[in-house]
């Protein structure tokens, strides 16, 4: 079977899940490639996966340089989450989805099935045009709810490609957390939940704070990182704050409390295994990694699906949700202290960890796709 995985040219969308799934499919004897933009092709290839380079699919950094996006760049430069709260960003780009679909259709690599990550819709359109089944690896379960008139906009794109409205149901949706993560009204049909391979545990701090791989780019003018360092400095616990780049560490002019280590990038999955609390922007990958390690969270969302993820963390009792607007070192320190001292958070996170461990491995997605392909 020829399996084409599709993902936006963003490393965090590709490397943690799609790359290991592609390797598993290759090891099972299937012909596999990941279709994405050129900006991340070398990163994917270093993970041992062939890449179908889509020439017109741009990374956020490349797209952000376009002149028509100058007002967006200016808004980002002025954004201070501790004052204005989470940034509202478009999570569905009609033109990008159409471009992605066109590039996949025009590529010479012809799949028997297309498996896309949640944020990438061009693969879905391409599958419908090519008449092949599609599946979803759900790396952002709560994001579709944020798209205004999503079904109508998707049908408008279908019309441009000569595809009937409504489309066809996905062959399967591969969730990466137990079904209980999904609110009851957001559980897609065909949902099958899986677990990723366990990470090795490394010695680390009691508290880890990280705001994602884009922290240094998004939080340039913000005081949020300084507030985080100051808050953890007020607690008598070893802590690490990932600033997002070595350059950010070298140029740091904020507080340097003795109990807080500043780092650029950290092996987050490994360190979480030894932590008692995780201060996070509530990106789904970080939430998934914390729950897989049984670590409760202090969720401080910044944009996209992070606010609903943070709300879900609170609803499930696996952490607390702290609003960025009006955040201070005192309020953040109090939230971290609460997660460290109230055992209910740790118990809920550990229970979630146990339910994750009971899920079938992600590699079973390949087996299911092959089974359905033979039955078709």
TrEMBL record:
Superkingdom of origin: Bacteria
CDD domains: GT1_Gtf-like
Keywords associated with the record: Transferase
Organism name: Amycolatopsis nalaikhensis
InterPro entries referenced in this protein's UniProt entry, alphabetically: EryCIII-like_C (IPR010610), Glycosyltransferase_28 (IPR050426), UDP_glucos_trans (IPR002213), UDP_glycos_trans_CS (IPR035595)
Domain called Erythromycin biosynthesis protein CIII-like C-terminal: residue spans: 228-369
Name of protein: Glycosyltransferase
